[in-house]
């Protein structure tokens, strides 16, 4: 499975970002669009990468501080029909079905979990019901 990384990068780090993708065996398609990003200003780097390679690439981008001065977007690619996509998936270390992109896990978990009044009410009711002794339970000596 491929993921598309869309990276908004300050122009002074574009070469380093391109080198990062070039060195990664899981990169299938790479495009560098100079000067197209308006906010934040800079370049746009697009790459389709094997899922197994995405976590290391995001870590490399964070080491370059692209997450602070630019942006990183990750999207699933439903279908990619190309020899380079097949090669990237074969050459990427590990198995795509086992690959975890931790940044996606962290962001999804943070977005999907929030403490609400209704959750606390249901939790309180469930705790109270669990504490009530059942009248059908017999005690033996």
Mean pLDDT metric: 82
Distance between the termini: 62 Å
- Helical residues, percent: 40-55%
How many β-strand stretches?
4
Q: Strand arrangement, largest sheet?
A: 2-3-1-4
Count of DSSP helices? 6
CATH structural architecture: 2-Layer Sandwich
- The coarse overall form would be elongated
Radius of gyration: 23 Å
Provide the CATH topology: Alpha-Beta Plaits
Domain count: 1
> From the helix content, strand content and strand pairing, which structural class follows?
alpha+beta
CATH domain class name: Alpha Beta
Low-confidence stretches: none
Oligomer: single chain
Topology order in helix (H) and strand (E) letters: EHEEHHEHHH
Strand proportion, as a percent range, falls in 15-25%
Protein model, in words:
This protein is an alpha+beta fold. The chain has a single domain (2-131), classed as Alpha-Beta Plaits (2-Layer Sandwich), CATH 3.30.70. It is built from six helices and four strands; from the N terminus they run βαββααβααα. The chain has helices at residues 14-23, 51-63, 66-69, 83-91, 102-112, 117-131; strands at residues 2-9, 27-37, 42-50, 71-77. It has a four-stranded antiparallel β-sheet. β2 and β3 (42-50) form a beta hairpin. The longest helix is centred in the C-terminal third of the chain and has 15 residues, at 117-131.
Give a short overview.
The chain has 141 residues and is α+β, with helices and mostly antiparallel strands.
